[in-house]
Structures are given as C-alpha cells and as structure tokens.
Amino acid sequence: MHVVSGKIACQRCHGNIEEMDEVYQFADLSMGWCVNCHRETKVQFADNNYYSIFQKYHQEIKEGKRTDVKVSDIGGLECQRCHY
Ligand code: HEC
Ligand code: HEC
Ligand code: HEC
C-alpha cells in the first residue's frame, strides 16, 4: 500500500539508509507516527482505480471544492484499519 500505491520513498520511513555507516532505527514506529503521517499525506488518488469508488471526492475535485484527499479522509485514522 505504502510503496506501490502510495509511492512513498523508503527513506521517508527508514531515513537516508544509503548514507548510514551502520543502520539504525530512524522513526519511532509509534502509533502517533503512523497517524500523523496519515493526517498530512495525500493519497495518490487521481489515476488509481482502487479509489474510483470515492465518487464524492472525485466530484468535489472536479468542481474545484477540494484540492486533495489525505489518508485520513479515506479512513486512515480508523482504529480497525490497523488493529483489525
Ligand atoms: C510517511 C507517511 C506514512 C506513514 C509514516 C505511515 N503511513 Fe500508512 N499510508 C500512507 C499513505 C500515503 C497511504 C495511502 C496510500 C495510497 O495512496 O494508496 C497509507 C495507507 C495505509 C493503509 C491502508 C488504508 C486503506 O485501507 O486504504 C494502512 C492500513 C496503513 N497505511 C497503515 C499504516 C501503519 C500501521 C503505519 C505505522 C506503522 C503507517 N501506515 C505509517 C502514509 C503513511
Ligand atoms: C510507510 C512507511 C514505510 C515505507 C514507505 C517503507 N517501510 Fe520498510 N518498514 C516499515 C515498518 C513500520 C517496518 C517494520 C519495522 C519493525 O517491525 O521494527 C518496516 C520493515 C522493513 C524491513 C525489515 C527490517 C527488519 O528488521 O526485519 C526492511 C528490510 C524494509 N522495511 C525495507 C524497506 C524498503 C526497501 C522500502 C522501500 C521500497 C521500505 N521499507 C518502505 C515502514 C516502511
Ligand atoms: C495508522 C495505524 C493505526 C491506527 C489508525 C490506530 N492505531 Fe493504535 N497503534 C498503531 C500502532 C503501530 C501501535 C503500536 C505502537 C507501538 O508499539 O509503539 C498502536 C498501539 C495502540 C495501543 C497501545 C497498545 C499497547 O500495547 O500499549 C492502543 C491502546 C491503540 N493503539 C488503540 C487505538 C485506537 C483506540 C485507535 C482508534 C482511535 C487506534 N489505535 C488507531 C497503529 C494504529
């Protein structure tokens, strides 16, 4: 989801690993880390058929009422997404 669909670079979560003499844990891997990024980061919405069911958002983008869709707009803050 993150790498293929979201096109998030490995380095955003793992740091500039190619410049590390010795690999270390870059992010704290806390729930806040996951959730804050979901609040701030846009979903790759436009050309992904997986998101075609979000007709309301597509309509709002077309009408200029919305500029982007954040992960939080598609349920990225819902407990069961991560905890089942
Ligand atoms: C650097 C930003 C970032 C971080 C950190 C991050 N995410 Fe995400 N996450 C995203 C983006 C962007 C998407 C949407 C990808 C797309 O465009 O399809 C996503 C999508 C997801 C989805 C799929 C939601 C759905 O049903 O469509 C899950 C589950 C998820 N993330 C879990 C996690 C968990 C668990 C963590 C922490 C361990 C985490 N994420 C950390 C950016 C992030
Ligand atoms: C959205 C954040 C995110 C992105 C993007 C991401 N990773 Fe990860 N990665 C994680 C998390 C979280 C773990 C699990 C860490 C843990 O269990 O301690 C992980 C684990 C790993 C591990 C296993 C480490 C171990 O201790 O066994 C490797 C290797 C890895 N990632 C490589 C990559 C590579 C290569 C990319 C890019 C193609 C990438 N990751 C992109 C978040 C991400
Ligand atoms: C984007 C993914 C994501 C979402 C959404 C999410 N969580 Fe979490 N949550 C995590 C991760 C990852 C951890 C583990 C953090 C750690 O080990 O430091 C965690 C840890 C927790 C813990 C602590 C468990 C322990 O052993 O201490 C609780 C409680 C919790 N979450 C409840 C919730 C509730 C309630 C919601 C909804 C309001 C929620 N979570 C939404 C990813 C998420």
Produce the secondary structure layout.
Elements: H1 10-14, H2 31-40, H3 55-62, H4 79-83
The protein binds heme C (HEC) (3 copies).
Give an account of the 3D structure.
This protein has helices at residues 10-14, 31-40, 55-62, 79-83. It is mainly α and 84 residues long. The relative contact order is 0.14. The model has no long low-confidence stretch (mean pLDDT 94). It is 33% helix and 0% strand. The protein has one domain (10-83). It is elongated, with a radius of gyration of 15 Å. One heme C (HEC) binds at residues 30-31, 34-35, 38, 76-79, 81-83.
User: Strand content of the residues, in percent?
Assistant: under 5%
- SSE order in H/E notation? HHHH
**Class by alpha and beta content:** mainly alpha
Largest sheet: none
Number of helices: 4
Measured as a percent range, the helix fraction is 25-40%
* Average residue pLDDT: 94
Q: List how many beta strands DSSP finds.
A: 0
Compute the separation of the termini in Å.
16 Å
- The domain count comes to 1
Unreliable spans:
none
The small-molecule ligands in this entry are: heme C
The shape, in one word, is elongated
CA radius of gyration is 15 Å
Question: What's the short version?
Answer:
With 84 residues, the chain is an all-alpha fold. It is built from 4 helices and no strands. The protein has one domain (10-83).
